[in-house]
Amino acid sequence: MRDRIGVMAATPVLGLLLSCAAGSASPGGSSLQVSRALSVEPLMCSSCTGDIARMERAREVIEDAATFRKAFLDSAHEGTEVPEVDFSRFVVVAVWMGQQSNCGSEISITGARETGSQVEVDVRTTLSGNCPSADAISYPFCFVRVERVAKPYVFQEKTETRVCE
């Protein structure tokens, strides 16, 4: 009889623990969104390049070596070696800022995280503002390697403008 009472008392506690582990909704009706940081390894970023990479702003997730090779060689200075990427384990995330009137603007990928439904990629664009910079048409871009995850990749954008005196 005692063992039966112990099992009956433990059952609600066990059920509560299992529902929390399964990520079920809390009594308030919202569920916890757990995220996992993914490593971001820069392959190449450039803020002042004379090579016409992309005339327009673009964001891409590249999943194979041939597509990466073409995009990289179209963006980088002639003679730049294409980095090796194991596409069975990683994807390349590439961002282009489009044509800029000077070399003072930059674009970078500052982080990535996997959530329950997607991979969020943080893109930071920095505009030159009133700061001095070389007057040259430029096409800022950035390529990074990110762990391959079978979820959609979504870009989270943040733009800053430098202020100089």
Report a brief summary of the structure.
With 165 residues, this protein is an alpha+beta fold.
Descriptive notes:
The chain has 165 residues and is of the alpha+beta class. The protein has 2 domains: 1-32, no CATH class; 36-161, no CATH class. The protein contains 2 helices and 8 strands. The chain has a 4-stranded mixed beta sheet, with no helix packed on it. The protein has a 4-stranded antiparallel beta sheet with strand order 2-7-4-3, covered by helices on one side. It is flat. The protein starts with a helix and ends with a strand. 21% of the residues are buried. The model is unreliable at 4-30 (pLDDT under 50).
Write out key terms for the chains shown.
four-stranded mixed β-sheet, single chain, alpha+beta, 165 residues, 8 strands, 34% strand, 2 domains
Spatial shape: flat
Q: What is the oligomeric state here?
A: single chain
**In what order do the strands lie side by side in the largest sheet?**
1-5-6-8
What low-confidence regions span 5 or more consecutive residues with pLDDT below 50? 4-30
β-strand number: 8
Summarize the amount of helix as a percent range. Answer: 10-25%
- Give the H and E element order: HEEEHEEEEE
